[in-house]
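Dear colleague,

Following up on yesterday's call, I've attached the two folding results inline so they're easy to grep. Please treat them as preliminary; we haven't cross-checked anything against experimental data yet. The first protein's sequence and structure tokens come first.
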Amino acid sequence: MEIIFVLIGIVAVTAILLLFNKAKKWKKFKTPVLDNYDLKKITIDHIDQMEDGSEFEMYLYQLLLELGYTGVYKTPGSRDFGADVVFTDREGFRNVIQAKRYSVGRTVGVDAVQQAFSSMRYYKAKKSMVITSSEFTDPCETLAGINHVKLLDRKDLEAIIKAFQQDDHTAIKNRIEAEPRMILETWSEMNDPVLRDIKKDYKAEKRVNELRKAK
């Protein structure tokens, strides 16, 4: 009987220690980056371990301030209308950023592009972009290219972090402000006298035709 109590005690102590260590580890990332970190010490691993997307937004917010951009501010945590951070680039154009702090393997879909693009009017911005710690899906890349939304993925973020540690602010600004990948042929087709069908639901068309014939 005593052995059972001893084993139970050992298990309980082990569980408490594990929970304490985990809490200690995550406590490091609970405080917003803006309040508690030297940005030069931040690595991609730190970003991967951030508790939620708001900390990533705070990181980008302070990064833009440190880079010397003007008109930099973070939007509220709720009802932000699709933009997380706003700044004015070197050409004087306002930019909106949709930030996606995703784990590796979880890709960013078209909704991020939709949010960034649609938020431009609300924030009176000229350009929009999505920055992620992960990758983008192919449909996301396509929609961004059509709407000229700038995409910065994990590789871009790693390059930005490295350049910041080396005080190469110009390289970071050049990467951030570089022209987005553009898909132009879709826009040029708008002037064609006959427009082709795009993403047509042929099953729905067939069903409606059958119903109309049955009348």
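Below is the second protein, in the same order (sequence, then structure):
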Amino acid sequence: MTDNQYLLLYTTAPDGEPWSAESDDIADWLDTVDPTGIRIFGERLTTPSDARMVTKRAGAVAVSDGPFAEYTEWFVGFDLITAPDLAAATEIGSRHPCARFGRVIVLPLMEPIEGREKLEETIRAREDAAAV
């Protein structure tokens, strides 16, 4: 069975337990996943004040500087991992320190061919809608 790829997104959480240097040492988690090859890549993210939100409506690009009032939680990091299935990826995410003091969002990546098919399907649907 071929492993699938999953994006683990880490966020702050107002209801999270307080961060603890003893309980939340990221090196402990890395020591368990890196030797196995589960973790492909990951990194911490900078603060909301460094972020930009980009939108494009009717051809006009708008850029907003962070922080963003509409977000009560913020992305603080990510890891790209491999796992046999969503349950295994969720278990891996549950061991990350952020699961205790923040949140871990586990997102399956589309298979490349599936992603291409979905893109073409979306393009066709938009063309059909524009023709009406």
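For the second protein, one point worth flagging: The two ends are 44 Å apart (CA to CA).

Best wishes,
A.L.
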